[in-house]
Automatic annotation (TrEMBL), chain A:
This protein's name: ABC-type dipeptide transporter
SUPFAM superfamilies assigned: P-loop containing nucleoside triphosphate hydrolases
InterPro entries: AAA+_ATPase, ABC_Ni/Peptide_Import, ABC_transporter-like_ATP-bd, ABC_transporter-like_CS, Oligopep_ABC_C, P-loop_NTPase
GO molecular function, one term: ATP binding
Source organism per UniProt: Natronospirillum operosum
Major localisation: membrane
Gene3D superfamilies: P-loop containing nucleotide triphosphate hydrolases
Chain ranges of the ABC transporter domain: 10-265, 293-543
Automatic annotation (TrEMBL), chain B:
Membrane-spanning parts: 31-52, 95-119, 131-151, 157-179, 212-237, 257-280
UniProt KW Acetylation keyword: no
One record GO biological process: transmembrane transport
Annotated family: Belongs to the binding-protein-dependent transport system permease family.
Organism (species): Natronospirillum operosum
Membrane topology reported for the UniProt record: Multi-pass membrane protein
GO annotations of cellular component type: plasma membrane
Recorded superkingdom: Bacteria
Gene3D superfamilies recorded: MetI-like (1.10.3720.10)
Protein name: ABC transporter permease
This protein's UniProt keywords: Cell membrane, Membrane, Transmembrane, Transmembrane helix, Transport
Length: 601, 293
């Protein structure tokens, strides 16, 4: 190990950990899920533990807070916070450390805040309780801290409830809560994973700033190499419980020593670096003439009803005047942040939601407003894959039966032929057909997504709409699934409408890109031209926010606290028309920016 | 309709169910105890003529109001009837009451709750308000009203208890379906082209069954107790029936002089109720694919 511990003359690091083992012992084995982990954290240092799911990174952070599950056993040669041995602390000792000197923020800010108390109430009460302040002083301190995490109009915010804040604002509140007692170490467990890229970039900038302002160490736990490259000073790489490699961020990215680190870095999609890993974008050449899918002026609105007579007071303009075409064998990526209406658009195309206007033509036939029986025929043409493969599989049905279901449903095979077809499909997506008898919980995330893909392919569709199909997967798995999808496209000439928030994935898989913002298409064009020369203001800010997995290219962050404007308007609001201007033969951009409209209205 | 999910789950795993039962029993001795209690009650019900030493309704087979003693292990009642025989024969009617009442409650409750939650709209409003009206009266009041209309008899008391239980299962199913039907796997079925009937029968019902089984087995116990209550009030099983509630009712006058007349039927009810609860928990675990590897 390359670490020095408190040898004479050198100031001891804030956290020193060496030979840490964490296990869930049974009668026979130790079952260690973290093995021989060593690292140190100093003040003002951002140390990142990076690894895929199941690597033991979160357990490590819990050990630093004495919050390991009861069945877990931890042992270490040394696990110290300054000069205190963290493994030997009593419950009472922990009260003086946890939340005061070491505090933590979590991935999902909504579930970590009490939904029935206002922001101010939760924070003020904590201060009254912990520090014995009176209400007035506590409130003043809370306002100070909210200012520190750059929450605009803090005095207004403290009267709001968690659900009234956006995801980014909630994460700021969480950070503010963690900072209340002035901790020396902040543990951030995937703090930006649930956030959009533009907001993620804001939060990461905030963490960096706070480290400098408050003289605080940060332990950043993440799976995202881009986030690591942009923020960390030191990196600890973990794989399935093993400590793989430690080094400064420059070392790790420039000269990774371990094979796993190299593989991890290789599978990170690098946007705009010109190097597309694994293989180039699909070689299939989409046919331009007869488009498979034509969407014209599609519109989906949701009314928010309230008061007497349930009159529509406000309206969510989820999808507004969207038009595009998708050719055979083509992949169109639909990019946008949460709330941009991309999932609503996908559901409207498949008639899972009734559109309020416009037409959807599949193979030249208008399928809007068809009844269930007629629609069934068209469902064979277009299938869907969803984000969370576990949630989209029936937990109580064997996966073979689930893949067989669409075959039976559409009458494509009978009796023994069904089983044969299921076997073929399993082989096509690279699964052992013998696993057909298992239940969904017996598979890993990547395998489950393969099952979902097999199920979608069962009816030999011509179009697959993939809604964030790889965003819940680890990067190495993600790369494999993307390759599989490309492979299937080459074999079958299928078209994909690929919905994602991850621009790096877009570059890997799609021929064309459509950027969505507040329910509108703001830019549409070939992947090359949109990513290389983005023309809309929003596309540019989106591209800038994407973390780059290269520590030498750290962005200059501008402190920005703006939220994405809301697509909710008064019921009588008329959306202005936005003509698309053609820049190049295959590149359109919207003439207008909702930001100006919202500010204007 | 109510038994469909169970059979479909069983059918899909031929040969493994027996093993998973054994595994569940091996893992949890409480399940084994539950199974044992129910088996004992079933055996008593099925083989009553062979097991019971005397005719349960025959007078003066022993001394009047005798305390438990060799020959009359549970004592005798005011007519000299043997309590062992009465309790063995009573298992028949008591078990029938529990199973039938729960079937009625579950059948109607499941249908109403599922359709209300799945279809929504005016059907939801209509069904749920109907259930609310039923819910706003206490169960025993509804049962009393039903018995008043149908006339006192064991079967009518059972139907009454069954009707009184509908809102419980209806509400329960309603909330379970509301949660399940918004899960992505149901949406993916719709995207696949599955119709309502298929989604309900193949996906929704199997996924809500485990919770319903737990509630149902506890329901068997409450149904037995409720029917016993009606019998106790003289509205259910009529003398000389040896249904346990009726036996309890008949013994209330001898509370201080012959407590064994209350003790043994009470104990029998308790044990059967306990058995169903323990077994229900075991069945729920067996139906969970995560439990049997």
């Amino acid at each position: 190990m390359k670490h020095q511990f408190s040898t004479s003359g050198i100031k001891a690091p804030m956290i020193s950990c060496s030979g840490l083992h964490i296990g869930f012992p049974t009668e026979h084995t130790a079952n260690n899920v973290v093995r021989d982990l060593s690292f140190t954290i100093d003040r003002k240092e951002i140390v990142s533990i990076v690894g895929e799911s199941g690597s033991g990174k979160s357990l490590t952070s819990l050990a630093l807070l004495g919050l390991l599950p009861q069945q877990a056993r931890a042992s270490a040669d040394c696990l110290r916070f300054h000069d205190r041995d963290l493994l030997g602390q009593s419950y009472r000792d922990w009260q003086g450390i946890r939340g005061k000197r070491i505090s933590m923020i979590f991935q999902e800010p909504m579930t970590s805040l009490n939904p029935v108390l206002t922001i101010g109430r939760q924070m003020v009460e904590a201060l009254e309780w912990h520090e014995g302040l009176n209400r007035k002083d506590a409130t003043r301190k809370v306002l100070d801290i909210l200012d520190q995490v750059r929450i605009p109009a803090a005095s207004k915010r403290i009267k709001q409830y968690p659900h009234e804040l956006s995801g980014g604002m909630r994460q700021r509140v969480m950070i503010a809560q963690a900072l209340t007692c002035g901790p020396e170490l902040l543990i951030a467990d995937e703090p930006t994973t649930a956030l959009d890229v533009t907001v993620q970039s804001q939060i990461l900038g905030l963490l960096e700033q706070l480290r400098a302002d408050l003289d605080m160490g940060i332990l950043l736990i993440t799976h995202d190499m881009g986030v690591v490259a942009e923020t960390a000073d030191k990196v600890v790489v973990m794989n399935a419980g093993d400590h793989v490699e430690t080094g400064t961020v420059e070392q790790i990215f420039a000269h990774p020593e371990n094979a796993y680190t190299k593989r991890l870095l290789a599978s990170v999609p690098r946007l705009g670096s010109g190097v597309v890993p694994n293989s180039a974008r699909p070689e299939t050449s989409p046919q331009k003439d007869a488009p498979l899918l034509e969407v014209e002026h599609l519109q989906v609105r949701f009314d928010q009803r309230a008061g007497w007579g349930r009159k529509a007071r406000r309206r969510v303009h989820a999808v507004e005047d969207v038009s595009f075409r998708l050719g055979r064998g083509e992949t169109l990526a639909l990019v946008g942040e949460s709330g941009s209406g991309k999932s609503t658009l996908a559901r409207a195309i498949l008639s899972l939601i009734k559109p309020d206007g416009g037409t959807v033509r599949l193979k030249g036939r208008d399928i809007t407003g068809l009844n269930a029986r007629l629609m069934l025929k068209h469902r064979r043409v277009a299938q869907m894959i969803f984000q969370d493969p576990y949630a989209t599989l029936d937990p109580r049905m064997r996966v073979g039966d689930q893949v067989a279901e669409p075959i039976v449903l559409h009458g494509l095979a009978r009796g023994k032929a069904v089983a044969r077809r299921v076997q073929e499909l399993f082989e096509l997506v690279g699964l052992d057909p013998a696993w057909a008898r298992r239940h969904p919980h017996e598979f890993s995330g990547g395998q489950r997504q393969r099952i979902c893909i097999a199920r979608a392919l069962a009816v030999e569709p011509e179009l697959i709409i993939a809604d964030e199909a790889v965003s819940a997967l680890d990067v190495t798995v993600q790369a494999v699934i993307l390759d599989l999808l490309k492979d299937i496209q080459q074999k079958t000439g299928i078209s994909y409408l690929f919905i994602t928030h991850d621009l790096a994935v877009v570059e890997q898989i799609s021929h064309r890109v459509a950027v969505m913002y507040l329910g509108r298409l703001v830019e549409l064009g070939s992947t090359q031209s949109v990513l290389r020369s983005p023309s809309h203001r929003y596309t540019r800010s989106l591209l800038q926010a994407v973390p780059v997995a290269d520590p030498t290219r750290r962005p200059q962050r501008v402190q920005d606290t703006s939220d994405i404007p809301s697509p909710i308007h008064d019921a009588d609001w008329q959306p202005p028309a936005w003509p698309m201007r053609q820049l190049q033969p295959d590149h359109w951009v919207a003439e207008g920016d909702p930001l100006h409209e919202v500010v204007g209205s | 309709m109510t038994h469909f999910p169970l059979t479909s789950t069983l059918k899909s795993s031929p040969g493994t169910l027996g093993r998973s039962v054994l595994v569940a029993i091996y893992r949890k001795p409480t399940v084994f105890l539950g199974a044992l209690l129910i088996l004992a009650a079933l055996a008593a019900a099925l083989f009553a003529p062979y097991l019971a030493p005397y005719d349960p309704e025959a007078f003066a087979v022993g001394p009047v109001l005798s305390a438990p003693q060799p020959g009359y292990w549970f004592g005798t009642d005011e007519f000299g009837r043997d309590m062992v025989s009465r309790i063995i024969w009573g298992a028949r009617e008591t078990l029938l009451v529990g199973l039938l009442a729960v079937s009625i409650s579950l059948g109607f409750g499941l249908t109403f709750g599922l359709l209300a939650a799945y279809l929504g709209g005016w059907i939801e409003k209509l069904f749920m308000r109907m259930l609310d009206v039923l819910f706003s009266f206490t169960e025993i009041l509804i049962a009393l009203a039903c018995v008043a209309i149908l006339g006192p008899s064991l079967i009518n008391a059972t139907i009454a208890v069954g009707i009184a239980g509908i809102p419980v299962y209806g509400r329960m199913t309603y909330s379970l379906v509301l949660v399940e039907r918004n899960k992505p796997y149901i949406e993916s079925c719709r995207a696949m082209g599955a119709g309502h009937v298929r989604i309900i029968l193949r996906h929704l019902i199997p996924n809500i069954t485990p919770s319903l089984i737990v509630v149902g087995t506890i329901g068997i116990s409450t149904a037995i107790l409720a029917a016993s209550g009606l019998s106790f009030l003289g509205l259910g099983a009529q003398p000389p029936s040896s249904e346990w509630g009726a036996v309890l009712a008949g013994a209330r006058d001898y509370f201080s002089t012959a407590p064994w007349l209350l003790l043994f039927p009470g104990l029998a009810i308790t044990l059967v109720v306990l058995g169903f609860n323990l077994l229900g928990d075991g069945v729920r675990q067996m139906l969970d694919p995560k439990q049997n590897k």
